[in-house]
Amino acid sequence: MGISLMYYLLVSGGLFALGLAGVLIRRNMLLLLLAVELMLNGANVALIGFSRHWDVTDGQIFALVVMVVAAAEVVIGLGLIVAVYRQRIVLDVDELDQLKG
Amino acid sequence: MAERIAFAIAAAGALGSALGVITLRNPFKAAVALIGTLVSVALLFLLAAAPFVAAIQVIVYAGAIVVLFLFVIAYLGEDPPLMGPDRTGRWAFVPATGVGVAAVIGLVALLRSSLPGMRARFAEASDIGSPRAIGEAFVDRHALIFEATSLVLLIAALGAVLLARRAVLGERGR
């Protein structure tokens, strides 16, 4: 017995749903970013599963690009968190709703 | 059969650690749970004939990115007033309902899908995941994307430097 695309899509959907729940539940910016990473990984699992299903490399290229975007996003996100922290503001997404320095 | 057992372990590890990432109160423990998810996902990649992407997942993701998270957590410290509490009070049913409805829609779409060969086991894989295949695909067919990723990383680095400079200037002004 082998594995089918269905299983990969189920795991992918599960990871994405858990990440979405985390984004909606968390108010701490740092933990919110961790949940976003879960969503990106869910997407990557689907991409790799489809790459295996159609037997082409393109899905893996796409997954690598998603990783690059995730790295860039983490750098900017953590930079924002540190910048907010140094101004002595609470790291709560409900408090930070003004888009103003 | 062995493949299936490995897949089940990796899937359970990924989803279990993901649950830890979104429920653990301590940021440090949540980041360590994220390492568990990332390594399990790397195992899933390995089972889908993607050894190069699995290696990058462990080295770059579980290595560099999570270490960056842990560094910032250590820098901020576990200062309770600076950390907002989770949304788990009276209004917790709103995100729960939203995610539940989305999950049901996705599950129905998946189970009713008529994509050819979706439920059949994977056919024998050709050479799609080796560093050679990835390199050829990147440079031959996706050169523009390759250049775009370098631009994205450059802009991210510049943005981080600008943010840090602003933060220091803002502090001096107080």
Globular, elongated, flat, extended or rod-shaped: what is the shape of chain B? globular
SS content category of chain B: mainly alpha
How large is the radius of gyration of chain B?
21 Å
Mean pLDDT of chain B: 88
Q: Largest inter-chain interface?
A: A-B, 75 and 92 residues
What is the mean predicted local confidence, pLDDT of chain A? 89
> What is the string of helix and strand elements of chain A?
HHH
User: Shape of chain A, please?
Assistant: elongated
CATH class of the domain at 1-79 in chain B: Mainly Alpha
Find the count of extended strands of chain A (DSSP E, 2+ residues): 0
The share of residues in helices of chain B is: over 70%
By oligomeric state, this entry counts as heterodimer
Summarize the structure.
The complex is a heterodimer of chains A (101) and B (174). With 101 residues, chain A is mainly alpha-helical. Chain A contains 3 helices and no strands.
In words, what does this structure look like?
The complex is a heterodimer of chains A (101) and B (174). Chain A is mainly α and 101 residues long. Chain A has three helices and no strands. The radius of gyration of chain A is 17 Å and the shape is elongated. The termini of chain A are far apart. Chain B has 174 residues and is mainly alpha-helical. Among the domains of chain B are: 79 residues, Four Helix Bundle (Hemerythrin (Met), subunit A); 33 residues. Chain B has six helices and no strands. In chain B, helix 2 runs antiparallel to helix 3 and helix 5 crosses helix 6. Chains A and B meet through helix 1, helix 2 and helix 3 of A and helix 1, helix 2, helix 3, helix 4 and helix 5 of B.
